[in-house]
Design brief:
Largest sheet: 7 strands, mixed
Number of strands: 11
Structural class: mainly beta
Helix content: under 10%
Oligomer: single chain
Distance between the termini: 40 Å
Shape: globular
Length: 118
């Protein structure tokens, strides 16, 4: 059974940094794309960025470019979202998701809350 578990959320001041983790278990993820999404109160879930697990190739939403970095640790089967220069508008529940390369994101974590105070 594939499982994803996010951690690392919390309260941070504007301009600060935070690193989220997504621990993946249940199978090999070498043929997967791992993504981060977020959902702010009253808004739809939005794509933040993703990484192709085997190649390490990343892609980001415009809102994340230059501030957020996605990486993975093969030995720990963990994906990270390093967030810097955080803004109050980054406040959201952040979710980790997995998709077979070319497929839909069909495995999701429970989410972790990030709150950025002004």
């Amino acid at each position: 059974q594939v499982q994803l578990a996010e951690s690392g959320g919390g309260l941070v001041q504007a301009g600060g940094s935070l690193r989220l983790s997504c621990a993946a278990s249940g199978r090999s993820f070498s043929s997967y794309v791992m993504a981060w999404f977020r959902q702010a109160p009253g808004k739809e879930r939005e794509f933040v960025g993703h990484i192709r697990w085997s190649a390490g190739i990343t892609s980001y939403a415009d809102s994340a470019k230059g501030r957020f970095t996605i990486s993975r640790d093969n030995a720990k089967n963990t994906v990270y979202l390093q967030m810097t220069s955080l803004k109050p508008e980054d406040t959201a529940v952040y979710y980790c998701a997995a998709a077979v390369l070319g497929g839909n994101y069909d495995t999701w974590g429970q989410g972790t809350q990030v709150t950025v105070s002004s």
